[in-house]
Design goal:
The mean pLDDT is 87. Helices cover 22% and strands 30% of the residues. It has a four-stranded mixed sheet, covered by helices on one side. The chain has 87 residues and is of the alpha+beta class.
Length: 87
């Protein structure tokens, strides 16, 4: 039996899921100690939950409300854990 990897499943379906209004990203995560596919949405609605699968090729699909993704300002460097916000 040739089981697909989670990376293959994600790659095969990302374009389809991203074409659904409200979906802003996909990725791989973990749920209950098992790998899962994460679909990030601006707002988790019943309509979106009905449009998105609960599993894909044997992997759990976890729909995560993330809001909009925004690019980080490249001129701002990330703070280190020892810096305060005003540094």
């Amino acid at each position: 039996m040739n089981k697909k990897t989670i990376e293959h499943v994600l790659h095969a379906h990302t374009d389809e899921w991203m074409s659904i209004s409200g979906v802003v990203g996909t990725g791989i995560g973990e749920r209950d100690g098992e790998p899962c596919i994460r679909i990030f949405v601006t707002r988790k609605t019943q309509q979106l939950l009905q449009e998105l699968p609960s599993t894909s090729d044997g992997f759990i699909v976890d729909v995560v409300e993330s809001g909009e993704f925004k690019p980080r300002d490249p001129s701002r460097r990330p703070r280190t854990s020892t810096e305060t916000p005003d540094q």
